[in-house]
Amino acid sequence: MKSFSLQQRWANKYPELGTEPIPVEPNISAGYFERERERIFKRAWLNVGRVEDISGVGDYVVKDLEILRTSLLVLRGRDGIVRAFHNVCKHRGNKLAQSCSGGARSFICGFHGWTYDLAGKLVRVPDEEQFFNFEKSAYGLTPVATEVWEGFIFVNVDPHPIETLAEWMDELLEQYRGYPFAGMTRVATYQATVQTNWKVFMDITQESYHVPTLHKRIVPDSNTSKGNPFCHLPSIRLYRRHRASSVYSNPDHQPTQAEAVANKFGITVLEGATSEPLHPSLNPERVTDWAFDSNVIFPNLILHVGKGWYITYNFWPLTVDRTLMVYRFHMNPANSLGGRISQEFSKVLARDLLREDLSTLESVQSCLASGALTHMPLCDQEIMLRHSYKVVHEFIND
């Protein structure tokens, strides 16, 4: 294990990011938001779920993505392959699948009865003879590039993506190869539509500077200590477009009575590194007093991975100052009633921490929009935010 110093300066390791305050304008400008739509989200690989969501042949989910101005139909074909299509009938543009999820042998448009198979092929047109020079093969559903990484389904609506998903994942591609995501059970799903810019929403998950203030009531000493009172991050890894960190765990943390009971029967979300070996994917820099790893997969997915659990956040921009966040919490399966108690403790704690994060966002957005602040000074512990804004800026000016 490697110890870390509170005197470490991340700005010295990543001098190309500078130390100047960063402008507020990208979080409040409608024009900037439209460039993000066109130059980031319409070109990026975007996570739309996991393979367990569509485990059987014909299982599907509908993803209505306002940032892309489209609805996507993600399904598992008869050959077992996961595919995605624009959820648009090729006749008159009706939305093909209306329900958000389900199972189907084919998809029938409710407008005129055009029918498509699980490969997106048009197989039936009522009164077909009335059409002129008509070939059904020319009117299949419009496909969307779809690939899977470690069970996570990604789509790219660019008709000709400039990178494969493997190229997009880049430095994170191999770290989680073989990690047992599929063996974990979803224990909670939370979502919220918040009046804030998507980057402002993501910012709060990319730094721990707020922990001793915002979360002092719920987790007063889980991630802070006399030796690390401001929850300095022991490891920060900045990549070409993604970024990651390892979060500190106080080895002298005193559990509450409820937490002690939960710890007795299973793993909880507060449990950090112990003498028990971790999966090699975790804590890549082998820092001491490790709590969990946080991975920011550009542009809008955050993946927290801890001992026996993982959390995904998907941040879907709706407007310049409105964002939908979908939060999914997975843990190792509970094999006993006690294990269920541990899961319940963790999911309720995670919910309450999330609520505290949400409590700041709308007031931050309204204050940024007021014009009272033109730039934001960032401390060394907020360097992941600095990297985030730099990557976004580079994309929209490419």
Structure description:
- The chain has two domains: 237 residues, Naphthalene 1,2-dioxygenase Alpha Subunit, Chain A, domain 1 (Alpha-Beta Complex), CATH 3.90.380; 117 residues, Rieske Iron-sulfur Protein (3-layer Sandwich), CATH 2.102.10.10.
- Helix 6 packs across helix 7.
- Helix content is 22%, strand content 26%.
- The protein is of the alpha+beta class and 398 residues long.
- The radius of gyration is 23 Å and the shape is globular.
Summarize the SSE layout with pairings:
Layout: H1 10-13, E1 22-23, H2 30-41, E2 46-50, E3 59-65, E4 70-76, E5 82-86, E6 101-103, E7 107-108, E8 115-116, E9 122-124, E10 143-149, E11 152-156, H3 165-169, E12 185-194, H4 198-203, H5 211-214, E13 235-238, E14 243-248, H6 257-265, E15 290-297, E16 301-306, E17 309-319, E18 322-331, H7 337-369, E19 375-376, H8 383-396
Antiparallel strand pairs: 1-19, 2-11, 3-4, 3-6, 4-5, 5-10, 7-8, 8-9, 10-11, 12-18, 13-14, 14-15, 15-16, 16-17, 17-18
Helix pairs in contact: 6-7
Task: Please summarize what this structure is.
The protein has helices at 10-13, 30-41, 165-169, 198-203, 211-214, 257-265, 337-369, 383-396, and strands at 22-23, 46-50, 59-65, 70-76, 82-86, 101-103, 107-108, 115-116, 122-124, 143-149, 152-156, 185-194, 235-238, 243-248, 290-297, 301-306, 309-319, 322-331, 375-376. It is an alpha+beta fold and 398 residues long.
